[in-house]
Amino acid sequence: MSNLLFIPFKNSYNLDLKETVRRYLQDHTSAHPDSFKVDINRWQELRRDGVGRTVHKDGTDKMNNYHAQLLSILTKLPSDIGLDISYAPVFSPNAIPVTLRSLVFERAAVLFNLAALYSQLANNEDRSHMEGIKRAISCYQSAAGTLHYLRSSALAELSDSPQEDDIPFDLDNSCIHSLEWLMLAQAQECFWQKAKIDGFKNALMAKLAANTSALYKLSISAVRDASPPVKSLFPSDWLAHIEAKQHHFEAVAQYRKSAEELENSSYGVEISRLKEAQNEAKSAQDIARRGKIAQAVVQDIDSLVNAVKTALARAERDNDLIYHQDIPAVSALPPIPHAAIAQVTIPAGLLSQPKGTHMIFGELLGWGAQEAINIYNDRKKNLLQDQIVEPARELKDRADEMLTSHNLPASIEALERPVGLPPSLLKKAEEVRLENGPMKIESWFEDLQRQARHDFNILEEAMDILDTEASEDEVARKELPLNRPPSYEANIELIEKEKRYRTILDQAKASDDTVRRKWDEWENNITDLTLNESELEAMVPSSTASNRKTPESAVTSRYARHLRVLLESLDTLHADRDQYVRRAEALAEADDIYPRILKAASGIARLAKVQPATFEDVLDEELAKYDKFCEYIKESEQKQEDILSSIEADNEKFIKSRKDDPSVKEREHALQSLDLSYHKYREITNNLQEGIKFYNDLSGLLLQFKDSCKIWCNHRQQEIHALSQSLGSMSLQENDDAGDFSEEDVRDQPEAVAEAPAPDLPNPPSQLPQSAQPKKVFGKISSGLPPLNSSEWGFEEIKLPPGPSKKKSKMKV
Q1: pLDDT attached to residue 671
Q2: Which residue from 57, 154, 181, 429 lies 20 to 30 Å from 636 (Cα-Cα)?
Q3: Transmembrane region positions (predicted)?
Q4: What is the pLDDT of residues 262-290, one digit of tens each?
């Protein structure tokens, strides 16, 4: 039985990553999953041997290789690719595992298990001879180095993840730091043992022991300074073992130093150090007996207690009879210097890429580069929409609104064409007729209502899922001792989100009703536009009586011509602006930044962590080619304002110059009514288009919300199932009297693990819920609602509520 500790493995479970990885590559990269079929299979194979299950020296190479591949994969893929990764708590292998969607979590767990493997290899060494001690020292130092690398490299990334609150306590910084000090202390203890066998002088032995005690003290202090959940995860015999070792080696240091004082004839100081050694040794003895630690440690301490007792009795007798030296207080003694021989040794396999090894997804564009492409495309899309397309449309709408308010061009067309219909009106009427406008609007209303009902049904189905879970929870509470909040408390965040979505749907319904009322008001007028030319002409009265030539009519005609020129200038400006918009859209359609990003990424170190921000300069340079279009839109806005100002001034003169001719006014009113009907037609169709898109986009969010409810409810059901199994197992164990060995026997004999073949990995008993990132959607702007991603709604994404039980009760380590 060893007098040192080893770190157990964090148990992992079967993980079929193929389908998830293929789906991510299909949805988020430009590569076809089949082109990486070999890499995906290789990843699956490497994980089987790389998560740590058997104690064999070849296992370190396999785990180092798997870690190197993970490190490379994380330069190609983001941490969250939708892959659920489960690991059991380190000191509770049969507890509910912690499940995270994080490749960084996988990497951290692999590093933890690599350190555990080094510690178990060290523990298996025969330290009764020199070669065994040397190998144990090397493994303990590598274990400490691996934990140091885990703490300084992987934990920082894991802490920055969106699932920070779900990180297991055995990957907390204080826990890892404590284990790191422990492994270093055990390496130092092996150096002390080696020095003892080699017969080193008492002075050096005291220094080695003092440093060993200090390292054990650092380990136990890290636990004491940790949060309560971290403290509670360590077995009580572990903490007792570490504390006993601290006092034990402090006693050894004082004992060895007393021997040096004897050699230097400092008999009083010798006695003082022996008394301190006796106090420390008795403290170690008391802790060891209370803590029920390994018998080998207890025997070491008992042996030291006896040796110190014998030496102290001899020293006091000799000093009383012969030397009569004063015995200084312990506080007056100089501290024993430390000899720090053990070193944190990071395995070489963690610091460099294996030579000649094919790296998984080596040909895939890195995640940071791919994300930079996505960011560029988003920025390009937003720039095109926000600074070119939308401003151009708003300028056109503003001009049309101004002309309509001034009865233009109907007023001058009524004068220019006393009979017949203006070409502009005929063109608009033909447009509505060809689109079969009224039937099109009615059809879209049906689509809108159908999609609204679909969204409402999804929300109702999500509530049905929560209601079913609440009923099951009530039944389970009558049969099982559930230590978790009831459903009406645990699901409060989901209920709040349901209320928000229901409010959105109610407001959308109100907007739909507004559009319907608008259609009911203008349906007859818009239907008139579908008539043929002769029927339309019959609806518009003529003004031939007003066409007589008079001095007043000449002035009116002159102003009408001025207005016609300005209107044609405005039409030309609209046409030029539309052409610029089409050119910008064509440029964006053909714009592919991939070659530039690929070239920039090729100049970065292969295993470097490439972030999207690395390509910021490239993105800015590429977006600059749209500057000329944005500048033109701004310039055209000023030109339009100048033309509209001139139109307004000339139109006022035109109105004043006209005689009060009823026939002209009647014709103007008829033409204006038809023109306004066309604009209302366009307004209603735009409202319906945006409404249908709104409901389609909202359905995606509602489906994600429904899935969140399912995951949450499944987790609650798994908790009940796990508790039922646990109670059943406890009942069986009470009736089972055939056990031949204890947990302590197994824990203290890792050799049995080393000899056994690698078992098949079980499936995880349960999985914790994961949050999904929703897609952003555009809102129903024209119908009176802000976009779904607007801050006006008070939220931007779907997030799952916290787990149904409190953090401490999740058995998360």
Answers
A1: 75
A2: 429
A3: none
A4: 999 999 999 999 999 999 999 999 999 99
Neighbours of 773 (CB within 10 A): 12
Residues 120, 57: Cα–Cα separation, whole Å: 10
The DSSP H or E segment spanning 536 is helix 533-539
- This model's pTM is above 0.70: no
Phi-psi region of 199 (alpha: psi -120 to 50; beta: other; left: phi over 0): left
Contacts of 416 (CB under 8 A, 6+ apart): 422, 560, 564
CA angle 26, 31, 37 (to 5 degrees): 80
Alpha-carbon gap, residue 784 to 802, rounded angstroms: 34
Contacts of the segment 807-811: beta carbons below 8 A, 24+ positions apart:
807/165, 807/229, 808/228, 808/229, 809/483, 809/484, 810/96, 810/98, 810/768, 811/89, 811/92, 811/95, 811/96
Average pLDDT across the chain, whole number: 83
Domain residue ranges in the chain: 1-189+344-364, 367-734+777-810
Using DSSP, state whether 31 is helix, strand or coil: coil
Angle at 330 between CA 324 and CA 333, to 5 degrees: 85
User: What are phi and psi for residue 393, nearest 5 degrees?
Assistant: -65, -40
* Strands annotated E in 607-671: none
Q: What angle do CA 488, 490, 495 make, to 5 degrees?
A: 65
Three-state secondary structure string covering 637-699: HHHHHHHHHHHHHHHHHHHHHCCCCHHHHHHHHHHHHHHHHHHHHHHHHHHHHHHHHHHHHHH
pLDDT score at 195: 96
Distance CA 232, CA 254 (A): 33
What does the alpha-carbon distance between residue 25 and residue 32 come to, in Å, rounded to a whole number?
Answer: 7
438 alpha carbon, distance to own chain's centre:
48
Report which of 510, 535, 509, 526 is spatially closest to residue 439, judged by C-alpha positions: 526
Spatial separation of the C-alpha atoms in residues 468 and 716, rounded to whole Å? 12
Give the Cα separation of 38 and 497 in Å (integer): 43
Range name among 328-332, 394-398, 762-766 with the lowest pLDDT average: 762-766
Interval 85-132: pLDDT, tens: 999 999 987 788 888 999 999 999 999 999 999 999 999 999 999 999
Q: What angle do CA 95, 84, 614 make, to 5 degrees?
A: 130
Query: What span, in angstroms and rounded, lies between the C-alpha atoms of 512 and 137?
Result: 76
pLDDT tens digits along 302-338? 999 999 999 999 999 999 999 999 999 999 999 999 9
Rounded to 5 degrees, what are φ and ψ at 129?
-130, 165
Structure tokens at 200: 């080193």
Query: Quick count: other Cβ atoms within 10 Å of Cβ 304?
Result: 21
Kindly provide the b/e burial profile for residues 291-303, where b requires at least 16 CB atoms within 10 angstroms of the residue's own CB. bebbeebbebbee
What residue type is assigned to position 333 of the chain?
Answer: L
The topology (CATH level 3) of 367-734+777-810 is Butyryl-CoA Dehydrogenase, subunit A; domain 3 (1.20.140)
CA nearest neighbour of 268 among 308, 223, 328, 214: 328
Query: 27 with 10: CB under 8 angstroms?
Result: no
Q: Which residue has the higher pLDDT, 673 or 547?
A: 673
Categorize the per-residue pLDDT at 730 as very low, low, confident or very high, splitting at 50, 70 and 90: low
The answer to whether 66 and 50 are in contact (CB under 8 A) is: yes
Q: Please report the pLDDT score of residue 42 as a whole number.
A: 93
Q: Are 551 and 713 in contact (CB under 8 A)?
A: no
Nearest to 657 by CA among 747, 548, 512, 553: 553
Give strand ranges (E) for 465-618: none
**Tell me, which fold does domain 1-189+344-364 have in CATH?**
1.25.40
Amino acid (1-letter code) at residue 560: A
Strand 98-100 relative to strand 85-87, pairing: antiparallel
CA–CA distance, 462 with 703 (Å, rounded to integer): 9
Contact criterion met (CB below 8 Å) for 206 and 257: yes
- Name residue, tokens 């099982």: 480
Give the integer Cα–Cα distance in Å for 281 and 263. 22
